[in-house]
Amino acid sequence: MSDPGKADDLLAQIPEGGRKGPPPVHLWNPPFCGDIDMRIARDGSWFYMGTPIGRKALVRLFSGILRRDGDQYFLVTPVEKVGIRVDDAPFVAVSLQVEGRGEAQVLRFVTQVGDEVEAGAEHPLRVALDPDTQEPAPYLHVRANLEALVHRNVFYQLVELAEPRRIDGRDWLGVWSHGTFFPLGPQD
Question: Is 18's pLDDT higher than 60?
Answer without folding.
Answer: no
